[in-house]
Amino acid sequence: MLFWIVAAVLTLCACLAVLLPAMRVRGRAVADADHDLEVYQDQLGELERDAARGVIDAVEAEQARAEIGRRIIKLAAERKQDGSAGSGRLGRIVATIAVLAVPVASWGIYAAIGSPNLPAQPLQARLEKNPADSSMQELVARAEGHLAANPEDGRGWEVLAPIYFRMGRYNDAVVAYRNAMRLQGVTAAREIGLGEAIAANAGGMITTEAQAAFERALEIEPDNAKARFLLATGFAQEGRTKEAEGMLRTMLDGLAADSPWRGAVGQALAQLGVEADPARPGPSADDMEAAALMSDNDRAQMIENMVAGLDQRLRDNPQDAEGWRRLVQSYVVLGRMEDAGDALKRGVEALGDEGEAAGDLVAFAAERGVVLEGQVEQ
């Protein structure tokens, strides 16, 4: 009820703010006309006194009377045209109806299609309802309220950190992971979560700070597959292909035969443009299917970052013939044939159209179905 009272008062004030100035304009015009008439009447009286004293002669007095008379007649005509009672009253009625029609129509439409009887839902009441009936945003708001009152609750920060990450609130996830480690202690899982949040906040780039988090995780758990994988991704982004390849191969050797990471590592090596050693256990069809257990975002980010890192390194160092073959191979594996063709074209231009290295690159690409523009595939 209080809301409707306030709304009605505000609506009334808005209407008066429009109507009162319009009425004042008319009142001011009438007052100005009355003042002018009094001035002319005073002038006539002064003229008659001057004529009686002989200050002005009869001809000048007559001319002055005629001029003042014309002004009085003109003023009377203007008042009759602009200030007639009928037109003034009609104008005020039209203006009042027009102004009041807006809120009346708005209230009527809302009453017909709105929800005026919907009960209020204050934030505190929503936060206090059964968690099973709450949305994710309400649950997060509840947790944030709890942590605002209990900032030393390390368990609360640890629970909230991955939720922030899934919601895309990466900076908040970084803060939450740091608080969790400050209050709960450092673990490999928390360091990995922190590194992922830092990388996501940087647009998917494994920054120096994120790499440091993964390295600390490996110091705690040297065999942690996720930390090794993400650290290798960072090396690939920097163009440190050999280091990334070495870390991935070492990781592959230490993985169990049924590990879902085997398929992911095999894909990562393919994106680097190299093949796993045939003597070593490579990823099978089952391994590739098991790799689907990884987060789609993690896998896609890893692949795209590795290829982007290799592409950027070749732009900076275009004389690397082996690098161009790896880049073409990576785009073919991804199914990005147009990008593979573009990489082939750039590689040939960088290595020299007539050179042996360029010819080897063209032959390598042709075996994978990639040809230069204007070249007919054999």
Automatic annotation (TrEMBL):
<feature type="domain" description="Cytochrome c-type biogenesis protein H TPR">
    <location>
        <begin position="128"/>
        <end position="260"/>
    </location>
</feature>
<keyword id="KW-0201">Cytochrome c-type biogenesis</keyword>
<keyword id="KW-0677">Repeat</keyword>
<dbReference type="Pfam" id="PF23914">
    <property type="entry name" value="TPR_CcmH_CycH"/>
</dbReference>
<dbReference type="InterPro" id="IPR056413">
    <property type="entry name" value="TPR_CcmH_CycH"/>
</dbReference>
<keyword id="KW-0802">TPR repeat</keyword>
<dbReference type="GO" id="GO:0005886">
    <property type="term" value="C:plasma membrane"/>
</dbReference>
<dbReference type="InterPro" id="IPR017560">
    <property type="entry name" value="Cyt_c_biogenesis_CcmI"/>
</dbReference>
<dbReference type="GO" id="GO:0030313">
    <property type="term" value="C:cell envelope"/>
</dbReference>
<dbReference type="GO" id="GO:0017004">
    <property type="term" value="P:cytochrome complex assembly"/>
</dbReference>
<dbReference type="InterPro" id="IPR051263">
    <property type="entry name" value="C-type_cytochrome_biogenesis"/>
</dbReference>
<dbReference type="InterPro" id="IPR011990">
    <property type="entry name" value="TPR-like_helical_dom_sf"/>
</dbReference>
<protein>
    <submittedName>
        <fullName>C-type cytochrome biogenesis protein CcmI</fullName>
    </submittedName>
</protein>
